[in-house]
Amino acid sequence: MQRTLAAALLALGCATSASATTLPQSDRLTLLPWGSFSSEPGLRGSPLTQIEVLDVLLRADGAASPWQRFWLLEKIVKAPGKPDSLQWADSRACGAVKIRLAALEKLEPAKVELTPRPSPSRAGVTMLKVPDVDAPTYVIDAPSKYRSGGAGRVRLSAGANSSVGQWVDRTMRDLASCWRDRPPV
Fold first, then answer.
1. What are the pLDDT digits (tens) for 144-178?
2. Rounded distance, CA 157 to CA 142, Å?
3. For residue 51, which of 35, 67, 64 has the smallest C-alpha distance?
């Protein structure tokens, strides 16, 4: 997706260089990959929706102006048998972007479970809980930090009844009116 964004920005004259592995950079634009979130289809073939999040530094009036910093989101929807849909949103035009990204810091943390706990038994047979393979999987990939001061990346993957699934679903609903067919920069 970053190549798609880079091509669009080059076409708009916002960047002077880009390659297949780097984002465009210039004296007035810097794009920093931050993370992503997605809703991946289950077996029934619902569309894949993935949103890339970029931290943007922009000098709107050239090198003499101060840097503006904002979030830029790129959404791609891949539905079976249909062309991919590509749209953008940014935190300058849509306040929900900042609100929803800030809500990530309040997500309920997952606990590591070494031994799956049995679900309630049916007619005396204990069933182990397993993920529903027919339901969407929600994924969040983002920077992380530890109480000790260390930093890294975290990738969370869960079903609909998790804090991850609820955050992704609510974020997609809250951003529904923010999407545009052209990059905002």
1. 888 898 899 989 999 888 999 999 999 999 999 99
2. 12
3. 35
Beta strands in 41-108 (DSSP E): 48-58, 68-78, 85-90
In three-state secondary structure terms, 7 is helix
The pTM for the full model equals 0.75
The more confidently predicted of residues 18 and 74 is 74
Q: What are the residue boundaries of the structural domains of the chain, listed by start?
A: 31-106+134-174
Chain centroid, CA 2 distance in Å = 13
CA–CA distances in Å: residue 121 to residues 79, 126, 127 = 38, 4, 6
Token pair listed for 50: 């993935």
Q: The tokens of 103 are what? A: 């809500």
The candidate with the shortest Cα–Cα distance to 31, out of 89, 79, 72, is 72
